[in-house]
Amino acid sequence: MVMSLGGVNTLFAIIFNLAATQAAPAGQNRHFSASKSHSTSSESSNKSFQFNTVHARPPATHTQSGAALMLMLLALILFTSSMLIGRANNLAAKQLSEARTLQALQKARLALLAWSYARGVGGAVCKDQDKDQGVCNDRPGELPCPDTSAPGTPEYGSAEGSCAAGALGRLPWRTLGLGEIVDGDGEPLWYAVDGSFRWRWSSWNRVINSDTQASLQVYAGDGATLITPSHARAAAVLFAPGSALGNQQRDAGASTVASNYLEAALGRSNHSAGGPFIAGPVYGSSGAPLMNDRLSMISSIELLDLASRRVAREFERLLGGYAKAHGRYPHPAAHENPACQLSAPSMTVSACSPDTSRCRGRLPAAESLFAADSYPYWLNWNLWHQAIYYGNSANGLSPHGGACGGVQLGKGQGTGLIDTCHPSPASCPGGECPAQVGMLQSCRSTLILDGQPALALIALPGASRSASPRLGSSNLADYLDEVPNQDGWDNSTPAAEADSYIRPRHPHNLFSSLE
């Protein structure tokens, strides 16, 4: 039972009065009457007095005093219990609001990640005339621009078509395919996006790959502790504004002004585009809240590691299609090929073609290798191939797993073989021809990944854990973390060492074996 404070006070007053009545001093309720009669005679006069006690109470006892104290104690217990119940209800309401806020932030985070992962599906395969216009550059890793429309307007909930670096606005829930997401106080979420990861429909030369770095900074509630290190800045920051503080106005005319919803404290500002931002709540010396914003973020590492999984899936599909059509996998591209070490996208990116003298290197980027209607253009345009290690086996390079033959040199799998299938004349499309020619291949019949055989494999480095770029580097340690995986970049290392790999025990590198 929950009782209002006014009801408790009334009950307390009734019980107190009752207790006071029970404890009245002895004699207060006694009533005495006296009568005097006079008789006169000639001889004498007599006076007589008669005392009659009417409604006399017995003397007060200790039992009555104890009952009064018990009643007063009961009143105190009821009053205290009601106060505690009221506080508990307030605390429960606050906890429920907090839980709803955290749930809203997490839902928005997952929606942004899912949207980014799915970019380029069913529409990124461009026609030749569109490639130089960049109209098909939807790519994994990018994030939508914030929504700057006022609530209630037709465009509310939809991402803007373009935005500046660090742009701040409301979460574009409609673009994400969701209903409006609100925090525990019923306020729509706000959202900031980093310049390197924002969606661009016209600037096709802005690449997103595992080397891309974010710049948004987020500080802890003390305003001094940076929770986004230099190699893992925030690609996106989500804000739950909470209830209005101070002189914030939240009527229709002020609904697009960020400072009416997000606060600033300790030299950090959540209502300024680009930040730096601060994770609330923050309280002043009096205990009053200086800001009540709740934050959640997506780091560049989280976003790019997820994008790497999408990239691996695409190349698995493309290489699988190639193997089905040709009975083998394509040769790797030479890691030192200048066309495989571009710093910016170019229409000549397809020159990063297979090298038939290699069984280890970079992933070839010649579109002519793959079916024209299945090759997502964003793979090349964002230079993902430069960050992917591609290893192949002698059987993986021979039609139908060795059906072409091949002359074994020496004993054992690691001593090399003569490949009689694949020449490399420059006139061949993509650098590969079906005519037979002999050459020395320093690779095993099969690759070994965690003790299991594979025909080929690809390895993605994942997001960079440092601020230094890796694309274009010839140092394999810049891409793969485990030392046993760092000795097979070219053919100079004996195959017995270079063609044996292990999956890392940490999630940085992503290995995918091809059978």
Write up this protein.
With 515 residues, the chain is an alpha+beta fold. Among the domains are: 92-303, no CATH class; 304-420, no CATH class. It has seven helices and 22 strands. The strands form eight sheets. A four-stranded antiparallel β-sheet has the order 3-4-6-12. It has a four-stranded antiparallel β-sheet with strand order 13-14-20-22. Helix 1 runs antiparallel to helix 2 (62-117). The longest helix has 56 residues, at 62-117. The model is unreliable at 1-5, 26-56, 127-134 and 401-441 (pLDDT under 50).
End-to-end CA span: 68 Å
Per DSSP, the total helix count is: 7
Helix percent band: 10-25%
Class from helix and strand fractions: alpha+beta
How many strand elements? Answer: 22
Chain-wise SSE layout:
Blueprint (H helix, E strand, L loop, with lengths): L4 H18 L8 E10 L4 E10 L7 H56 L10 H4 L36 E3 L19 E4 L24 E2 L14 E7 L23 E2 L2 E2 L7 E2 L3 E2 L5 E3 L2 E6 H27 L33 E3 L14 H5 L7 E4 L1 H4 L9 E2 L8 E3 L19 E3 L5 E3 L2 E3 L1 E5 L34 H4 L1 E2 L8 E5 L1
Helix pairs in contact: 1-2
Protein name: Tfp pilus assembly protein PilX
Organism: Chitinimonas taiwanensis DSM 18899
Keywords: Membrane, Signal, Transmembrane, Transmembrane helix
